[in-house]
């Protein structure tokens, strides 16, 4: 099951395209969901992290992403101050009627 789950996330394939030698894709998907819901994955990753840290296999590197996200070109003319005033009601002209 773990190999099937790892294959799915490593390749990005849909669950239904999981190779047959991994068994039922439904079984792997359901097992993943059950393990996520009951905290099994957290326990496994915590144990692996503790073991790797104790053995000195981890290099703690912190990276900060400073990516700039620009607004869409149509966002440039957005109104800045409060709601727009309501438009005045349209009234018929007092002038002579056109024939």
From TrEMBL:
Chain coiled-coil ranges: none
InterPro entries: IS402-like_dom (IPR025161), Transposase_6_like (IPR052909)
Domain of life: Bacteria
Residue ranges of the region described as Disordered: 72-99
Record domain Insertion element IS402-like: where: 1-45
Protein's name according to its UniProt entry: Putative transposase of IS4/5 family
Signal peptide: none
Matches recorded under Pfam families: DUF4096 (PF13340)
């Amino acid at each position: 099951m773990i190999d099937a789950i790892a294959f799915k996330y490593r390749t990005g394939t849909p669950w239904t395209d999981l190779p047959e030698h991994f068994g039922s894709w439904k079984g792997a998907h359901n097992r993943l969901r059950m393990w996520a819901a009951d905290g099994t994955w957290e326990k496994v990753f915590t144990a692996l992290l503790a073991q790797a840290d104790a053995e000195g296999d981890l290099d703690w590197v912190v990276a900060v992403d400073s990516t700039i996200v620009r607004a869409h070109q149509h966002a440039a003319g957005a109104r800045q101050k409060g709601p727009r005033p309501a438009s005045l009601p349209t009234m018929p002209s007092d002038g002579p009627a056109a024939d």
